Amino acid sequence: MLPKMMKAVQQHEFGGPEVLRYENAPMPVLKAGEVLVQVHAVGINPPDWYLREGYKMLPPEWQPQVTFPLVLGTDISGVVKAVAEDVKGFCIGDEVFAMVRFPSGLAGGSRGYAQYVSVPVSEIAVKPEGINHVHAASTPMSLLTAWQFLVDLGHDEPNPLQANRHAPVALDGKTVLVNGAAGGVGHFAVQVAKLKGARVIAVASGKHETLLRELGADGIIDYTKTKPEDLVRDVDLVVDAVGGPTTGRFLRTIKRGGALFPIFPLGFLETEEANKVGVTVSATQVRSNGMQLAELGRLLNSGVIRPVIDSTYPLADAGKAHERATRGHIQGKLVLEVLR
């Protein structure tokens, strides 16, 4: 018999980490096409703190309209506790992981910071046996982002970030520079590019060099000592996992006919300059995709791709995890562990 109430991290206003409250909340109501997952771990991602603050970096007309109390979180790993009558392929007791309702839940409809979450069956996949719930929860958004940018977009939805459809480029035998290579998306982008046959140059603080070489990076640039745009020329692709207004500095590092993929493209305005130097600039919005997650699960299970955990926190300490995020320089991912 499932309980009527659960514990969740809710917020009743926008603000800093201090607005996150661990408190009682109603259980999710299961709808057609969904499964109910008892959450064991929750991965933390930048959209979590963007939403916590109210997406202040967006123009007012783009800011999502939310209803409080708000529950953050998209990336979960746990055990199926109930299935809707129309659901096939998943059963009570299955261990699963998912990126829940993204970007459709951008205004707080994902509700991952909780003991239970309802998930559309199209968005879940069986958790890889070779990794635990903490590592599984750390992967969905960051790894799907790297995969959809670099390998397979996985959908035909209109691109909210540009007029044209994002198109990955061939990586075999190419040179790829990954900026922010030790972070959540970056450390997966390094591994995905290597998996697809690229030579990878990783840009990160020097303290991450050992890890990045273990993940397959062929070269390391310590940005605290050298500006990569002053050192590198003629790469085929730059994946800027930091992005933002400064991403234009990488245009000079890319050969004509190459590409620049800013993971966070907002604020980047130098598309005219990119056209002048013959560089394609393209970005996309990561989207939930259970089929892709199942494919990636096989790579995680075999160890071909491995997640890196910076640190873990109890769900009740979500505010402390967000405080850690504000300090930056995260190696891999932050994860919340859920008491059962």
Quick structural gist:
With 340 residues, this protein is of the alpha/beta class. The chain has helices spanning 46-53, 133-137, 140-150, 184-195, 209-214, 228-231, 271-276, 290-302, 318-326, and strands spanning 5-10, 21-26, 34-43, 75-83, 95-99, 116-120, 124-126, 175-179, 199-204, 219-222, 235-240, 254-262, 280-281, 309-314, 333-337.
Attribute tags:
340 residues, alpha/beta, Quinone Oxidoreductase, Chain A, domain 1, Rossmann fold, seven-stranded mixed β-sheet, six-stranded parallel β-sheet, 15 strands, 26% strand
Helical residues, percent: 10-25%
The radius of gyration computed from the alpha-carbon positions, rounded to a whole number of angstroms, is 20 Å
CATH architecture of the largest domain: Alpha-Beta Complex
Oligomer: single chain
Please, could you describe this protein's structure?
Strand 12, helix 7 and strand 13 form a beta-alpha-beta unit. This protein has 2 domains: 5-144 and 287-337, Medium-chain alcohol dehydrogenases, catalytic domain (Quinone Oxidoreductase, Chain A, domain 1); 167-281, NAD(P)-binding Rossmann-like Domain (Rossmann fold, 3-Layer(aba) Sandwich). It contains 9 helices and 15 strands. The chain has helices at 46-53, 133-137, 140-150, 184-195, 209-214, 228-231, 271-276, 290-302, 318-326, and strands spanning 5-10, 21-26, 34-43, 75-83, 95-99, 116-120, 124-126, 175-179, 199-204, 219-222, 235-240, 254-262, 280-281, 309-314, 333-337. It is α/β, with parallel strands linked by helices and 340 residues long. It is globular and about 60 Å long. The two termini are 15 Å apart.
